[in-house]
């Protein structure tokens, strides 16, 4: 009778995400990976091929979770702009949960891997481009629905929002209080009000 694995891939990836987000690629030794995933080296290599393979898959899963959260906020509100604002405000709250901040692992990977692991840096660049495109599409939808003034450059506004998200996550790393972080997120969300069409 075949032995059944005592783990599943999503669970392993979530454990890897937590470790890599906290320590980064270079700061995570194979021994720490073994302990975090509760697997022997042979099982890790059999499942993911290498440390690079595990990191790349964890980063992709991390990005997909973040995209899912953004889409959830957009799909459960009548107004795209209000959905985006709620998402931005919620980012400040994620610091107090057991979930890592979404943008942080991507930016950390880009900064850490640019000179050492170009494939991982390229993956991070692609993820950031995909996030920006998702924001562009959401803003275009809002503009088409008459929520935004017609002169709005959605690509430019998406870059601004993404930059603000990265900044918010970076400020969270500096140890701001929950109140300070919430106020910052509220200020960022309020930027969208200046683009709203008058009704």
From TrEMBL:
<dbReference type="InterPro" id="IPR001647">
    <property type="entry name" value="HTH_TetR"/>
</dbReference>
<dbReference type="Pfam" id="PF00440">
    <property type="entry name" value="TetR_N"/>
</dbReference>
<dbReference type="Pfam" id="PF16925">
    <property type="entry name" value="TetR_C_13"/>
</dbReference>
<feature type="domain" description="HTH tetR-type">
    <location>
        <begin position="6"/>
        <end position="66"/>
    </location>
</feature>
<dbReference type="InterPro" id="IPR009057">
    <property type="entry name" value="Homeodomain-like_sf"/>
</dbReference>
<keyword id="KW-0804">Transcription</keyword>
<dbReference type="InterPro" id="IPR011075">
    <property type="entry name" value="TetR_C"/>
</dbReference>
<keyword id="KW-0805">Transcription regulation</keyword>
<feature type="DNA-binding region" description="H-T-H motif">
    <location>
        <begin position="29"/>
        <end position="48"/>
    </location>
</feature>
<protein>
    <submittedName>
        <fullName>TetR/AcrR family transcriptional regulator</fullName>
    </submittedName>
</protein>
<keyword id="KW-0238">DNA-binding</keyword>
<dbReference type="InterPro" id="IPR036271">
    <property type="entry name" value="Tet_transcr_reg_TetR-rel_C_sf"/>
</dbReference>
